[in-house]
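Section 3.1: Structural characterization of target chains.
Under the original work plan, the team committed to producing a structural model for every single-chain target entering the pipeline before any wet-lab resources were allocated. The record below documents one such target. The sequence was received from the expression subgroup and is listed exactly as submitted; it comprises 265 residues.
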Amino acid sequence: MKLVSWNVNGIRSIHKKGTLAELVRTMKPDVLCLQETKAQEHQSEVDFPEYEEYWNSSKGRKGYAGTAIFSKVQPLSLIFGFPDEILKKFHLKDGYGDPNEEGRVIAAEYEHFFLVTVYTPNSKGDLSRLSLRYKHWDPAFLEFCKLLEQTKPVVFCGDLNVAHTPDDLANPKANEGEHGYTKEEREGIVAIIDAGFVDSFRLFTKGNGHYTWWSHFANARARNIGWRIDYFFVSRALRSRVKAARIHADFGGSDHCPISLDIDL
């Protein structure tokens, strides 16, 4: 089974550029997970007949955030956002609003596993949303995945808006303490790994130079001055079933590139 995840930074824009159709045509994913769709479903002209579409769009701010799953296999069930038990426990709303209303999470249940796509809130350049990330969102998301895992193994993917280790960004020293590379944000990844989830890309590829996001400034992408902030994590029970995990830096159109996971299910 081939799974693909991509922060498209606006599905309408990337569809007009033709790169989304190119990805579907060349990579032929069984399931395509998208983040930062920035659209309601009725606003999208995307139509891939082989795929069923499942959208979680921002309810308050239009043209903001949002996730979608395009799947050849019909899920057994779907969860949009966090369930009430998670919301009551973690109190996600902050001065920017309620991230659970921003269309950031979809979980799809398949026969042998759950697949979750996530667009994690950015902690902001002035770190004004870091407290939300560290104290509320990150623990809420991990608890949600652990809750699903009580029933079936979990694969989760998406833009986690954090580089985990110095190997995951081109200039770690210069960015120490900056948003996306704070101690608090990185601890969120440590907690995920401590809970038994496996960073699939690092099963196959070590070292630096492998990035999924590049700034628009200073020709960063051409110079490969980037960050690896998009991930596929799998439950420990699925580790031996992961056959490949790749970054597809050749796909343009967004400031992120797609990532893929080949898994034997």
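The radius of gyration is 17 Å.
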